[in-house]
Amino acid sequence: MSTPSAIPAPATGATPASNTTDETTPLLSGNADDNGINDASAAEAQEPGPSSPAAIQASILRSAVLPTWILLIASSITLILSIALFILNGFWPSGYYQGYWLDYWKPVAVSAFFSAFLAIVNLYSIRASKPPGILFNILVHLVLGFVAINTVTMAGSELDPSRPRCTDGDDECFRFRLAWLIVMSATFISGVVFSWLTHPGLLIFWFIKARNAYGNPGRRQWTVPAGVLTFEFSIKFLRQTPDGSVPPVLPATQESQVA
Asked: Where is the composition biased (Low complexity) (predicted)?
C-alpha cells in the first residue's frame, strides 16, 4: 500500500518577489532631470545682466581703484613738494628780492590737499565695497581742476629762474639759488602733471562712468508689474411707455414689486 507523498513546505528563507513599482516609485522618471534643468534655467535667469544696476556698480567699483591711486599719488607729490618749497623759502638770503611766485602757487597746494583727501575718501569707500559717488567726483574735479589749471598757468607766466639775483662772490646765495631752482622746477612739473593731466583725465573717466550708469537704455525702459487687470461694464435698457416717454428709474426693491 503506497503512502501519500508529503507536500513540500515552502522554504523559510525564500522572499516574495518584489514588485517593480511601489508607492515610492515616481510616476514620471524624468521629473528629476526636468527639475534640474528648470533650476539651472532659473539660476541663469536670476544672474544680473551687464546692464543691471548691480553689474554697473561692480564695474565702477573695479575700475575706480587705479584712477583713485593715480589721484592720490599725483596730489601727494605736489603737496609734499609745495610744502618743501614753502619751507625753503624761509631760508631766502636777506637783502634779495623774493618776488610773488609763491603767492601764485598757494592755491595749487590747497587744491592738491583736497584732491588727496578726495582720493582717501574714495579708497575708503572702495574698501567698504561701495562705489564712489560719480556726481560728487565730477563736481570736485571740476572745481579743483579749474583752480589748479588757472593757478599753475599764472605761476608759469611769473616763473623767473634768475631769482635770487646773487652778487659776485656770494657763495651762500648761489648755493641757495641752486637748491631753489631744483625744488621749484620739481614742484612746477608736478603741478603741471597734477592740474593739466590728472584732473582732466579723471574728469573724463567719471563722465564715462556717469554715462554708463545714468545713460543706460535698460534703466529707461518701462516695466509693468505682473498682475491681472479686469474691466467690468453693464448695459441697462430703460422701458418706454406707449407714448414714447421714459418712466423714472425706480429703486431695485420697487422695481421687483412692479415686475
From this structure: 1-21
The torsion of the CA quartet 153, 182, 79, 195, rounded to 10 degrees, works out to 30
Domain-located, residue 259? no
In a domain, 95, yes or no: yes
- Domain hosting 171: range is 53-216
| Any domain includes 87 | yes
Identify whether 230 is part of a domain. no
Count how many domains the chain has. Answer: 1
